[in-house]
Amino acid sequence: MVTLKEIADKAGVSIGTVDRVLHNRGRVSKENIELILRIAKENGYVPNQVARRLQRNRQYAFGVLLPALESEFGYWQQIKEGIEDARRELNSLDVDIIYSFYDRRSQEDFLSAAEHLFSHDISAYIMAPLMGDATYHVVAEHKAIPVAFIDSSLPGVVPFCDFSQDPCQAGRTASRVMDFFSSSLDAVFTVQTYSSAYNGRMRAESFCNAYRKEHPAVELQNMNIAAEDEFRDIPRLMDRYGRIGIFVVNDGVHKVVDRLSSYDDISRFTIIGFDLSPENRRLLESGLISAIIGQRPRAQGYEAALYLYRKIVLGQERHIVHIPVDIYIRENVPEDKSWF
Questions:
Q1: Which domains occur in the chain, in start order?
Q2: CA separation for the pair 62, 158 (Å, rounded)
Q3: pLDDT tens digits, one per residue of 41-71
Q4: Considering the entire predicted model, what is its pTM?
């Protein structure tokens, strides 16, 4: 059966416009009404009458539980922008969005933010499952409320919808990209800054497994950087080798580049990281970063919010989508941030 989004895409209008036409509420131009009804009929759209009767005349609140927007160089801000894109489409459909933010380095702050969020009457919620055991606790405590995961999956938990990148696929991709830039390295380092993050661990592990299979003689080391001042130790660790590959499993890659800037010949480093933050983008365009892996944070937020609407209001089924593993090099950086 065709979905509201598919009808909206075919008609070139928003999902909110389609909903207003099919549910006969709100003002829509005669041309759009005729177009949407024709597309719906041609594609066999059948509205869920039971769900519609149950769900009408209600205000819905979707919760969003995210790390502080100012952290991690704008990544979470991009996710929020995607959620706000969805909010604008859902605004006329009696849907509100409530945010709660936390310090990612504090489980106590995470649990406090979760408690604040669920003090509201939440119909469903979006979260990035990053905080280990504390995340399992929150999901279990509110298991009756549908959850959408973004950024990362959570082993052992199947959410209503999941818009995250496959971390193992991303790690393997980074290994192949490393080979594209340099097939002869003396040592390769993976760098993690959040050791409890499932997606970061899986990216590093999958990268190492794939790279070791192709280059069994190359030394592989994993670095866990728990504090800001530990970045200064990076040059000391690199002095023992000639040509070095570095895979940073998150958006902190520009901090690694900053610590390596004292080298006269930084070209001996092949550096791969994640996410087109403004600083990462600048270093990629300058050639100091070899490649960036993208995971479309804005699209994650947008799609997660829309799918919660479809679940709660329209009664659609569970949906799992793996975000594509995008590869950016200096020559193909998109101009418009809505593309990444």
A1: 4-47 (no CATH), 59-165+296-324 (3.40.50.2300), 167-294 (3.40.50.2300)
A2: 19
A3: 787 776 554 344 444 556 789 999 999 998 8
A4: 0.79
First to last CA, the chain: 30
Which of 94, 102, 107, 116 is CA-nearest to residue 25?
Answer: 94
Distance CA(179)–CA(177), nearest Å, equals 5
Distance between CA atoms of 200 and 198, rounded to whole angstroms? 6
- Helix/strand/coil (H/E/C) assignment for every residue in 187-215: EEEEEECCCCCHHHHHHHHHHHHHHHHHC
User: What percent of the chain is modeled with pLDDT above 90?
Assistant: 54
CB of 99 closer than 8 Å to CB of 66: yes
Phi, psi of 75 (to 5 degrees): -60, -50
- Number of neighbours of residue 284 by Cβ within 10 angstroms: 23
| Number of alpha carbons in the 13 Å side-chain half-sphere of residue 69 | 8
